[in-house]
């Protein structure tokens, strides 16, 4: 996965410079997350799996104090290039380079989708570890079952990579959140739109106080 995103990073940053790919319902969930975080008086948010930084920018514009982390050094380089006022770090979702209780919010925006089922628990455990009591987590992902091969999508841009996407149902992700010690606040599942091949799901959860 790291190698694949290192290869496609520059084209990815060009194709997705902002939130134009998100539907209004998707952004409504991000807005609800930002409001939940900032209304608590602590605006610190971790954009975990930040890619080229577009969601970090979106959250910053809504009053969050954002740091981004991503496994791909090239993606982090793109984020630093395009968002010079924000802080981005190379790191793994399964071993976040932050102390416990560091953030009031953690965003996992389509950043869990390349991890197979056996690795999901570790991601949510780490996200919970760095989340302070009462903090919020928002996860976005394609909803369904099975896997999708993304190699063909990037081949049109001249990239030969290996990259798989795993689909999960909202109930499966909710169970992972609960096992990590979080309580579900709300969820949204919407049908595929435009060129999307799968439904999209978003779960907002909170750390118990």
TrEMBL record:
Keywords: Methyltransferase, Transferase
Presence of the UniProt keyword Iron-sulfur in the record: no
UniProt keyword annotation of Nucleotide-binding present: no
Molecular function GO labels: methyltransferase activity
TM stretches of this protein: none
One BP term from GO: methylation
InterPro entries: Methyltransf_25 (IPR041698), Methyltransf_Superfamily (IPR050508), SAM-dependent_MTases_sf (IPR029063)
Domain Methyltransferase stretches: 45-135
Protein name: Class I SAM-dependent methyltransferase
């Amino acid at each position: 996965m790291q190698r694949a995103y290192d290869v496609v990073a520059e084209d990815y940053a060009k194709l997705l410079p902002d939130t134009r790919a998100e539907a209004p319902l998707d952004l409504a969930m991000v807005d609800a997350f930002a409001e939940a975080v900032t209304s608590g008086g602590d605006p610190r948010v971790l954009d975990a799996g930040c890619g080229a930084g577009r969601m970090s920018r979106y959250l910053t514009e809504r009053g969050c104090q954002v740091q981004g982390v991503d496994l791909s050094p090239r993606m982090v380089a793109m984020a630093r290039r395009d968002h010079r006022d924000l802080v981005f770090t190379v790191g793994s979702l399964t071993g976040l380079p932050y102390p416990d209780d560091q953030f009031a919010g953690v965003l996992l925006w389509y950043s869990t989708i390349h991890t197979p089922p056996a690795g999901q628990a570790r991601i949510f455990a780490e996200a919970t570890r760095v989340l302070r009591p009462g903090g919020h987590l928002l996860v976005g992902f394609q909803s369904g079952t099975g896997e999708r091969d993304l190699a063909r999508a990037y081949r049109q841009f001249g990239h030969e990579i290996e990259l798989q996407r795993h689909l999960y149902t909202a109930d499966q992700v909710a169970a992972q959140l609960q096992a990590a010690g979080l309580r579900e606040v709300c969820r949204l599942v919407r049908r595929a739109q435009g060129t999307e091949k799968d439904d999209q799901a978003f779960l907002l959860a909170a750390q118990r106080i």
